[in-house]
Amino acid sequence: MTFLGTGGGRHTTMYQIRSTGGFLVEHDGGNLHIDPGPGALTNMHRIHYDLTKTDSVIISHCHPDHYSDAESVIEGITRGGWVKRGHVYGSPTVIEGMGGLGPCISPYHLGIAAGHTVFRPGDTLDVDGLSISIKKAVHSDPTNVGFVIDTPHGKVSYVSDTEYSDEIADQYIGSRVLILPVTTPRGNRIRYHMCTDDAVPFIQRVKPELAIFVHLGVVILRRGVDEEASYVQQETGVRTMAAHDLMVMDVGEEISLTDATTYDDDWIPSTAP
Ligand SMILES: [Zn+2]
Ligand SMILES: [Zn+2]
């Protein structure tokens, strides 16, 4: 799993203080891109990842830090719109639009993919053989959800934007890795998001092997996100870290964390015309 972006919230996103490109999940059945926000395309080029290798895309909700590069990702999946392939998964606002939000994927882009699916909490998706269950969230896009990815080496969960509640946290019990959107630091709770104070009970309830902060807002980045993560580690006894852009996590028997090789050049993928 490659973290194409670790920023979140509108200010980190608009200034691109951290990238907001979501995650690339390379698994036995194919390649999946989750939440391709701004920076996804740029970072895929930087690591020489050919996006025509992507098979499916999941968009959690209709906020630009989660979707803005998605239509280009679909063009990648479909080899520039020439090959009908791949699957687009999204919440109701993403695919259909609802209550003034979205749709954020045009009918044209839904049409060039082989298929699309609207998900809701309680659903289980079969994404190219990878089982992903959809969990409830409490967010300003009311259709947002979180994800539990069932890998051969345990459950890896990506909790997309939500407020904290015990009920929200308990959905992720059994996760080996818990990827948490911690938008703001201690003492800075904002509506519809989590702060460091929320990460503590969340991680205490779930007790994962590893907790990773993502969706970092400007205030937590200014405050020092590594300090916030070590505070949570101290409070919970669970290994906790803040992700950085282009970090690569390999979940096998061990969990290994490395950095993707980056390039700053005019690489032209061999699949480009
Ligand atoms: Zn967000
Ligand atoms: Zn959001």
Summarize the structure.
This protein has 273 residues and is of the alpha/beta class.
Describe this structure in words.
- The chain is globular and about 55 Å long.
- The chain has helices at 10-15, 40-46, 64-67, 70-77, 92-95, 107-112, 166-170, 196-206, 218-223, 225-236, and strands at 2-5, 20-27, 30-34, 56-59, 87-90, 115-118, 124-127, 130-136, 145-151, 154-158, 175-184, 194-195, 210-214, 239-242, 247-251, 255-259.
- The chain is an alpha/beta fold.
- The longest helix is centred in the C-terminal third of the chain and has 12 residues, at 225-236.
- 50% of the residues are buried.
- It has a single domain, classed as Metallo-beta-lactamase, Chain A (4-Layer Sandwich), CATH 3.60.15.10.
- It starts with a strand and ends in a 14-residue tail after the last strand.
- Bound molecules: zinc ion (ZN) (2 copies).
- One zinc ion (ZN) binds next to loops.
- Residues 61, 63, 139, 141, 161 line the site of one zinc ion.
